[in-house]
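Support case: calcium ion complex. Customer-provided input:
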Amino acid sequence: MTSNPLTIRMHDRDNVAIVANDGGLPAGAVLASGLVLTDRVPQGHKVALVDIAQGAPVLRYGIPIGRAIKRVAAGSWVHERLLALPDARSLDGLPLATVKPAGLSPLAGYTFEGYRNADGSVGTRNILAITQTVQCVAGVTDFAVRRIRAELLPRYPNVDDVVALEHGYGCGVAIDAPDAIVPIRTLRNISLNPNFGGEVMVVSLGCEKLQPERLLPPGSFSIVDARSGADAGQGAEAALDVVCLQDEAHVGFMSMVDSIVRQAEGHLARLDGRRRETVPASELVVGVQCGGSDAFSGVTANPAVGFCTDLLVRAGASVMFSETTEVRDGIEQLTARATTPEVAQAMIREMAWYDAYLHRGSADRSANTTPGNKQGGLSNIVEKAMGSIVKSGSAPISSVLAPGEKLKAKGLCYAATPASDFICGTLQLAAGMNLHVFTTGRGSPYGLAAVPVIKVATRTDLARRWHDLMDVNAGRIADGTASIEEVGWDLFHLMLEVASGRRKTWAEHWKLHNALVLFNPAPVT
Ligand code: CA
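Agent response - structure generated as follows:
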């Protein structure tokens, strides 16, 4: 325990502050203001700075995060059981594109070394992805991928990896239900992620509902002709490379595996011929999200990411923030920051869709917070959301994506996704993310096979214990040894190093690969 009690208050209006000291503070500790704690207050948890009457708002980030269910005396621990959750803001009468942020000055001269693709996008890694139409083929594909790694990859040293895009979809699903478009376009767009170099290869079972032509219809992709190496262009003449396991030509398991390995070799040869080239930082497509959050997420890591988001937008890059239930309580700020009323309306449309989705399952946004969030000091979803949306920085929001859609615009985008780490990451991959930033306070070893994941710790204690899992320590902000701006710039420079392949993230080093998890709001059969 440090001798100096340290608390952090986010806004002048706040009637609570959080305890910053490792291990928390004991009853009797005296704050700099002279206030004496009447309870032990754990690290990251709130202390009442003044007497709060029963029914009065508890203010953090300058907004009511709840109402006191009984009188709370100054110096008391304000835990989640003392707070009543306010209703969600109605989606009617929101401010639409009312804030005109002071123009962010362009940031020129930053570059990275990336793989330029035929469609103009840029990869940060050079990976062969094997798309699958259905879960049934996952075991066979995995067997083949292990052979490809062992037998072929050493001969193609410029290829970083071979990745099987395993998922649970493809059959046993109501594929004609309107919402089935979400998982289908997610899979389609992931197979076209810039890190896969435009090499599309599919393993199909044969009898599944999601037929290869439905997953990747002619014209939805551009592929390189396997024989000539020339771009076969968009349209019907571009034949999809499919290995179908039920094909009568296959006799026995090894015949299927051989077929996958043989097809992979052509793709590997082309990928291996590619070289990194210097491209502007504007080619970054960054997805930001948080997971395992605590009360420091909104104080250290997320504000640093938000500062970095502004740097990226100033550099002309694309940045996505997501996690619908974690922005729902900040909707008023977000619709105000939209560049146009149409963008604000698109954001409202996504929120309304998600409200209805939760309602169908007899749930609401309050289902979001976890036991770990609460142990970490986050009392409820309002407090969590206020800390979460600061990842979006201060730039105007210029586009909105529905789940699974592909991002085509530069600037700051609201990509609507669930907050679930794996589903959010999967949908950001589909949107075309080539670099991922993930903040965590409780600690998550999260990683993806398809894209580098830079992990940012909210506390120095976590960064010290998880020294070989966390890439950036934003806890320095709470310690007073670095500013939000300094950590934001560190993250920006690290992004360019990682994107260039000069640095590996810890998740890449250890090959920590979480599953792709599709968002399927449609029924299964
Ligand atoms: Ca998340």
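Residues 253-272 form the longest helix (20 residues).

Case will auto-close in a few days if no follow-up is received.
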